[in-house]
Structures are given as structure tokens and as C-alpha cells.
Specification:
The chain has 13 helices and twelve strands. With 398 residues, it is α/β, with parallel strands linked by helices. The strands form two sheets. Strands 4-1-2-5-3-6-7-8-9-12 form a ten-stranded mixed sheet, sandwiched between helices. Strand 10 and strand 11 form a beta hairpin.
């Protein structure tokens, strides 16, 4: 049983200077012995992570946060990616700021501040699912995401995670998808007595048609799975029934996950609106661009399309079925990823559902204090939402 105390921020903690100064810098660790086993980034460099050790009551509790960052679905796209931090550990910063769910400050992260907190860097472009043995010398692309996953987990087990009493696998975006794909295998790595749970933040990507009627995201995911050789590393409970590309969608995978799962998502996920509902290919004239940059700019007809998207999204989430172990926080904000930003996670004006912040809802679920399963009313009903406003230079990652 998870046990902790509940703590909320004091008004004295609300000064802007504190928020600006927030963020513990944590050194990078390279898994150098992974290279010999072929567990490498797209460019062949070693995988990496950042670990801040736990203390006190959290010394045997582990929070693993999988980094997000889209995917690459063809050779050209992956070659471009391999020259960035999302494809090469050579391009990653040495020190990474830990905040929000990774914060070491009790007033900013009351339930996990003293846990062993790990940020696993994302450099394979397949949500840690790929494994192609051969490497084309002309491109030097390594599709080894599944090997990277296992190599990092084995190193963390050796560093004390094998003694974990509590363990949470989390992630944002492509990392949120990975936290679902690897949820049961993560539990299988840990001792029988460990309390294991999985948190998916903005990782519930919907299989839907775009505004032109095309199945763009389905085709895209099929290319990802094929290029990276992901099929054998996707949950067999899904691939035994559906094609591998379909098993990249949580709506077909999550119901069969045996480990407790918490789904945190915006019903109007800004990344999905920009890349799944109205991708560039479906909007050649840019009619959706202003709406995508700021939901307040959306025309009535566009809001109608987005409201329909919300209903389809909710149908997929509700379609997972009722479970006494599955948490849910579906707000009506126009945003993407809410565990990694302090103001969304736990702050003075954080988004609230049922008078509850995201951090408290997740903490209550993790510690079995209270099961949280709430879905927000439609936009624009929630005044606590933090709606993302983008600049015209913000290019979709796919």
C-alpha cells in the first residue's frame, strides 16, 4: 500500500521568482555498455538518462519519466532526426532541469519529490518499440528503440530499482504512448511485491480521419511500425487481434493492460488538433492555421469539428471499460503534456477538475487514497484551463 501525506502549496510559495528559479539541474548518464549490445540511438550513440536519487520515505520508490518528441516514419525524416537530441545522445544537454512531476521540492511535487526520479531520454523515434538488426551503411540509421528501453531499465534495476517498493512508469506525448506500450513489461521487470502503476500524459493518440476525410495518422503510424520493425515489440494482446499499426493506438491496447493505468489527456489535445485532425496534408490552404495557433481564433465551424473530435476521443477512452484501478483526468484545455509544466501540474492556478489539481488526482490514485475518474465539460466551460498559444514559427513535429 502506498502511504504518504498530502501537502498543498502555501501562499508564501506563490511568488513568481520562486517559479522562475524552479528546476533542479540533473547530470546526464550514458549507458555506455549498451552500445556493444546494439542498444543505441538513431545515430549509434549510447542511450542516456538523468537520475536524481530518492531520500527518506521515498528511497525505495521510483518514478520513471519517458521523454516525448514525436516519431520518424521514413528514412529522410529519420536522417534529419539523427542530427538532433531526439536522435543522438551527442546532442543532448549535460544538465537537465527537473520540475513539476520530477521536482525535488515538496511544495511543488508533494507526492513524488523524494522518490528516485528518472528522465529517460528519447532518441529512437519509435516510442521505444523498434528493433531492426541490420544497419544500412549508406544512412547509418539504427532502429533500436526496444533495445534502448531494455538497456536503460536493466541499468536502473542494477542501481537500486530492483529493490523498489513503489514504481511508476510515466511519460509525455510519444513517451506517454510508450508508458502504455511498456506498462506490463515494466511490471514484469520488477519483483512480485512491488506496487507498479503507469501514467500516460498526452499519450492517448486517436485513430480518426482528418478534416479531408483521409486516415492520415493511421498511415503515418503504419510507416513508423514498418520502418522501425516495431511489430514484435508491441503488446501481443493487441497484435494477436489487429494489425501492428492499429496497435500503436492506445484505444486498442489499453483495455488489455493488466497493470493499473492513469490516462491524463486534454480532450482538445493541441498536438492532435495540429497533426491528426488538421495536418498540413489535409489543410493545404492553411485555413486551420490561425485556429491551431490559438483556440480563441477558431471559427464556429472549426469549433464544431473540434467538438466532434472531443466526442470521438471520449468514446475511445470510455470504450476502455470501467476499471477500479484505472484513473482518468480528461480536461477541456487546448494543450499538450501537463505533468512536465509546473503551472499545469501543481501551482496556484493549475487546471482543476472536481476541485482537484492534476498532481493531487495522480497522487491520490498512486497512493490508493482515492480513485479519480473525471471528464471535463466541453470547451470553453473550464476557466482554470491553461490554453496553449503558439507562434506561427511553431512547426508540427510530423
Amino acid at each position: 500500500m502506498f502511504v504518504t501525506k498530502t501537502l498543498f502549496p502555501r501562499k508564501s510559495d506563490y511568488f513568481p521568482a520562486i517559479l522562475k528559479a524552479e528546476g533542479l539541474l540533473v547530470n546526464i548518464t550514458f549507458v555506455r555498455n549498451a552500445v556493444a549490445k546494439g542498444a543505441v540511438c538513431l545515430d549509434g550513440s549510447p542511450p542516456a538518462y538523468h537520475l536524481d536519487r530518492g531520500s527518506g520515505t521515498g528511497i525505495n520508490s521510483w518514478l520513471i519519466q519517458l521523454e516525448g518528441g514525436g516519431w520518424c516514419h521514413n528514412v529522410t525524416n529519420c536522417i534529419s532526426r539523427m542530427h538532433t537530441k531526439l536522435g543522438s545522445s551527442k546532442k543532448m544537454v549535460e544538465n537537465l532541469a527537473f520540475s513539476a512531476i520530477l521536482s525535488n521540492k515538496e511544495q511543488r511535487n508533494p507526492d513524488f519529490y523524494n522518490w528516485n526520479r528518472v528522465k529517460v531520454r528519447y532518441c529512437d523515434g519509435s516510442s521505444f518499440t523498434g528493433d531492426v538488426k541490420t544497419v544500412n551503411p549508406a544512412t547509418n540509421l539504427h532502429f533500436r528503440g526496444a533495445r534502448v528501453w531494455l538497456a536503460v531499465m536493466r541499468e536502473l534495476l542494477a542501481k537500486g530499482m530492483r529493490n523498489a517498493e513503489n514504481a511508476v512508469l510515466s511519460g509525455c506525448s510519444a513517451g506517454g504512448l510508450a508508458s502504455l506500450m511498456h506498462c506490463d513489461s515494466f511490471r514484469a521487470l520488477l519483483p512480485m511485491g512491488t506496487n507498479v502503476k503507469c501514467l500516460s500524459d498526452a499519450g492517448f493518440f486517436l485513430n480518426t480521419r482528418d478534416v479531408s476525410g483521409a486516415q492520415y495518422i493511421k498511415s503515418y503510424f503504419n510507416d513508423v511500425v514498418t520502418l522501425h520493425g516495431s511489430a514484435k515489440n508491441l503488446p501481443r494482446s493487441c497484435t494477436s487481434r489487429l494489425t501492428p499499426a492499429m496497435c500503436f493506438f492506445p484505444q486498442y491496447v489499453a483495455r488489455q493492460i493488466r497493470t493499473p493505468v492513469f490516462v491524463l489527456n486534454a480532450a482538445y489535445d493541441s498536438w492532435q488538433i495540429k497533426n491528426i485532425l488538421a495536418p498540413r496534408a489535409a489543410d493545404p490552404d492553411g485555413k486551420w492555421q490561425s485556429c491551431q495557433l490559438d483556440i480563441k481564433n477558431c471559427q464556429r465551424s472549426q469549433l464544431k469539428v473540434m467538438q466532434d473530435f472531443r466526442l470521438e476521443f471520449l468514446s475511445a477512452v470510455i470504450g476502455l471499460g470501467r476499471s477500479a484501478s484505472r484513473g482518468m483526468f480528461i480536461d477541456s484545455c487546448y494543450t499538450h503534456c501537463q505533468t512536465e509544466t509546473q503551472t499545469s501540474w501543481f501551482w496556484q492556478d493549475s487546471p482543476i477538475l472536481n476541485r482537484t489539481t492534476i498532481a493531487k488526482a495522480v497522487g491520490d490514485w498512486v497512493y490508493d487514497r482515492k480513485l479519480f475518474q473525471k471528464i471535463d465539460c466541453p470547451y470553453p466551460c473550464n476557466p482554470t484551463c491553461h490554453h496553449r498559444v503558439f507562434t506561427p514559427q511553431d512547426a508540427p513535429p510530423i
